[in-house]
Design goal:
alpha+beta; 19 strands; about 20% strand
């Protein structure tokens, strides 16, 4: 690389960092073209940059970020070391040399904008799996992600040893209908190997027009055999809250994602369950399985709906504005009725905030398998009107001070997935009092008792949910025995 180009690039970098004076005299530190405006920290995610149609970010922020005042340029003091001494000149010289070599010797001409944007992406990708640079399209998709409607496959993804890892398929999406599961590794997209691609590149390959088909080659578990799955792209409409009555007095609420309206929608669903059960909701199962996270405020709101006092979650980072605490209000939508929460390895980020808060406050029994373990906070920092950084700025902690990062939430009751298969051969029922001639009859016939049939149907549909219902009933009985 010509020395004058290297020297000029070093001076340009120094001016940009505000540490090197340009030829001709000193120059004031340049202000950014737009102030850094962090959003409400979002804890979703694993995730990742906004994905292909149907692959949203699990760490999306609130749509309306709260502006923060940019820090003033620091004034050097007599005791402080000169700023120029802090500039990593050797590393910057290496960068300038590499930049010049690419410009001069690469087989094809490359525009400066592409080279510098790639350098920015690489710089962020080297930090952690969740920090990234968002170009115009990615920034737009991230903002759309909180609304609950986007295009694509319907999976949350991250990177794992060079492959795309499915964090969770989203309910009622092409990915779920095609049988994709949390933990699957995508090794080929159509006929192209994923190894060596960045997450952005892999995600862009999975984008496409709704109605078109894509072939994913996945590795599942320890089988070692690749499995090819065909998925048809579609516009994804995510209803983050679903609910139903499992048995009289026992409700079920499923949260598939944490969006801006999730708390409000969940409260509405619980009110509907109360009316459906004549205001006698004895207990509730809250299903967070395969919920990859989303908006932090939604996680706080959901937790607050069941906790009457104290800390829900707090965050710690280097900057003062990243140190936040969220506390509960005085109301409990269940009025103290028992609560069971279902989690699994696809429960991440905001889901772990809810599970951790309810577990620490001993408000709910957590059942299932260990959660994903994403305990970092991503802040969206706009660079200008069309681009932004998604930067990891803090870790979050449960009320008792537990960090979930890379650890996850361990359930109170471990419950592995299972399949309930009713026997096809009917055994001879043992002799009962009701079978005896002239037995005393209380007026209730076997046909009046449908509970066995309901249990069998629920267990065949969802074994873990059926077990959660059984535990919920036990908690209800125990509460009555204690006079609760």
């Amino acid at each position: 690389m010509p020395k004058r180009l290297s020297h000029a690039l070093l001076i340009w970098i120094g001016i940009t960092l505000g540490t090197v004076a340009p030829p001709g005299g000193p120059r004031a530190q340049e202000q950014p073209s737009a102030p850094a405006v962090p959003s409400v920290p979002a804890v979703p995610e694993p995730p990742v940059v906004p994905a292909a149609p149907g692959i949203p970010d699990a760490g999306v922020p609130e749509p309306a970020p709260a502006p923060a005042i940019p820090a003033e340029p620091q004034t050097p003091t007599a005791s402080a070391a000169p700023a120029a001494e802090e500039l990593p000149l050797d590393e910057l010289r290496t960068f300038a040399e590499v930049y010049g070599r690419i410009k001069d010797d690469y087989v094809e001409g490359v525009k400066d904008k592409k080279l510098l944007e790639s350098a920015i992406r690489g710089m962020l990708a080297g930090l952690d799996p969740h920090s990234s640079y968002l170009d115009k399209e990615e920034y737009r998709e991230l903002q759309v992600g909180t609304s609950g409607e986007f295009g694509g496959l319907g999976i949350e993804v991250g990177m794992d040893d060079g492959f795309v890892k499915i964090i969770a398929p989203i309910d009622d999406t092409p990915a779920q209908r095609a049988g994709l599961q949390a933990g699957d590794l995508i090794v080929r997209i159509d006929d192209k190997p994923v190894k060596g691609l960045s997450l952005n590149e892999a995600v862009n390959m999975m984008r496409g027009k709704p109605g078109t088909e894509i072939r994913l080659t996945i590795m599942r578990g320890t089988d070692g055999r690749p499995l090819e799955v065909k998925v048809e792209r579609d516009i994804i409409h995510v209803a983050s809250v679903k609910s139903r009555t499992l048995e009289p007095g026992f409700g079920y609420v499923r949260l598939s994602h944490f969006q801006a309206r999730t708390t409000e929608d969940m409260r509405t669903a619980i009110d509907a369950l109360k009316k459906e059960n004549k205001d006698e909701l004895k207990g509730l199962v809250l299903d967070l399985r395969n919920n990859p996270g989303g908006v932090l405020n939604a996680a706080v709101g959901v937790s607050d709906a069941f906790i009457v006092d104290g800390l829900i979650v707090y965050t710690q980072g280097r900057q003062e504005e990243s140190k936040l605490q969220f506390k509960a209000g005085p109301d409990d939508v269940l009025a103290g009725a028992p609560l069971v929460v279902l989690v699994n390895g696809g429960s991440a980020s905001a889901s772990e905030i809810v599970a951790g808060a309810l577990q620490d406050h001993r408000r709910a029994l957590i059942m299932g398998t260990q959660t994903f373990g994403k305990g970092s906070v991503q802040t969206i920092v706009p660079i200008d009107d069309t681009t932004a950084l998604k930067l990891t700025t803090a870790r979050y902690y449960t009320p008792s001070g537990r960090s979930i990062q890379a650890e996850g939430i361990n359930p109170d009751v471990t419950l592995d997935p299972g399949v309930f298969k009713p026997s096809t051969e009917r055994e001879q029922d043992p002799l009962k009092e009701s079978d005896l001639v002239r037995h005393l009859d209380e007026g209730k016939t076997a046909a009046d008792d449908k509970s066995g049939e309901v249990k069998k149907t629920l267990a065949a549909e969802d074994f873990q949910l059926a077990e959660a219902l059984n535990v919920l009933k036990g908690l209800t009985i125990l509460g009555r025995a204690k006079g609760g």
